[in-house]
Design goal:
Elements: H1 5-18, E1 22-27, E2 36-41, E3 48-53, E4 69-71, E5 77-78, H2 80-93, E6 98-103
Parallel strand pairs: 2-6
Antiparallel strand pairs: 1-6, 2-3, 3-4, 3-5
């Protein structure tokens, strides 16, 4: 059984803080099963990455309950306005979307990425 979105987001934000990053909740979605988006800002170049929850096809039989993420763009870190535009489209499509913003000097994701 998968943990609720609100529990996952709370634990994720705590983990980011414990590992030296800074996380804020930009948007609260459905507490039980809302999808989660994570932005990661790097201080050095002011670029931002956006990670969205991976589709069900990214899960294998050995790990059916994990939350996996995929980068929104192949180049991963892009200009902030592109992330804002993409999130605006995503929230129109899914009003239950959670958005967590992470600031990390090294651009660490803190999420588990789906294997290509």
């Amino acid at each position: 059984m998968r943990v609720t979105s609100d529990f996952w987001v709370s634990a994720f934000m705590r983990r980011v803080g414990l590992e030296g990053g800074f996380a804020t909740l930009r948007r609260r979605g459905n507490a039980e099963a809302g999808a989660i988006a994570v932005t990661v800002s790097r201080a050095a170049d002011r670029l931002v990455a956006l990670y969205l929850q991976a589709p069900q096809s990214a899960f294998d039989d050995g790990r059916p309950v994990d939350r996996l993420f995929v980068p929104a763009w192949p180049e991963i870190f892009v200009e902030e306005f592109r992330v804002g535009e993409k999130l605006a489209r995503e929230t129109k499509f899914d009003p239950d979307l959670w958005i967590v913003d992470v600031e990390d000097r090294d651009g660490r994701t803190f999420v588990e990425l789906a294997r290509p």
